[in-house]
What we know:
Distance between the termini: 22 Å
Order of helices and strands: HHEEEHEEHEEHEEEEEEHHHH
Radius of gyration: 20 Å
Number of helices: 9
Strand content: 15-25%
Amino acid sequence: MLERFDELTTAHVADACLRVGLPVRTVSLTAVTGGRVAGRVLPVQHVGSVDVFLEAFESAAEGDVLVIDNGGRRDEACAGDMVALEAKAAGLSGVVIWGLHRDTVDIQAIGLPVFSLGAMPTGPLRLDPQPADALLTATIGEWTVTRDDVVLGDEDGVLFVPADRIGELFDLAESIRDTERRQAAEIRPGRSLREQVRFAEYLTARAADPSLTFRQHLRAVKGAVEE
C-alpha cells in the first residue's frame, strides 16, 4: 500500500474521495520525521498511560498505523520515543497522534513516520478510566475511525479512507494526478490553465445557466484542478 501511495499525495486521494461522494476525512497534522505513511488503522484512546499502546501492539499486524486519540489536548504529550521505538519493533509503519508528542530528536533518529499536532516536554499528569472501546475506535478531529479504515499521511496532513475502497480510490487518484501533471506540463511552455480547461466557455455557459458549477465543467472537459 505504501509503495503505491508513494506515487500519490493525500491531496490526490482527497480529490478522489470527493469525486466518488465519500466524506473527505482529513486533519491537519505535522510530520515529525518528514516521512509518509499508509496502513490500516490501529486505533487507541489514550487516558494517561502508555499501557494502552502496549496492549494495542499485542494485536497489531505488519504495516498497521497506531492512531492515537488524545482528544486534541495541548496540555500534555501523550507519546514519545519509547512508543515510537516499540511501534517500529512491532512492525507498525507509523504513528498518528491527535494530540502532542515529545522526544522529537529521538523520534527523528528512530525514523518511524510520526504525525502530531506539535511537541511539548510534559507527559501526562493524569490517569483517567479506560473506556471499554479504547482499542476499537479513535476520534481524530471530527472523524471516528476503526480498523476498517486506512490512514494516509504526507506533508499536507492525514487522510482516512475506508479500507474496502482503497484500490478504487488509488485508481482514481492516479488518474487525477496524471491529468494534473499533463496540465502543469502545458502551463510551463505557455498554454495557460484557463485555456486548457476552456475557462471562457465555462463563463459563457455559467452566464446562461447560473447553476452550472466549475466542477461540473471540469468533469465535462476532463480537467483536474479542484477534484
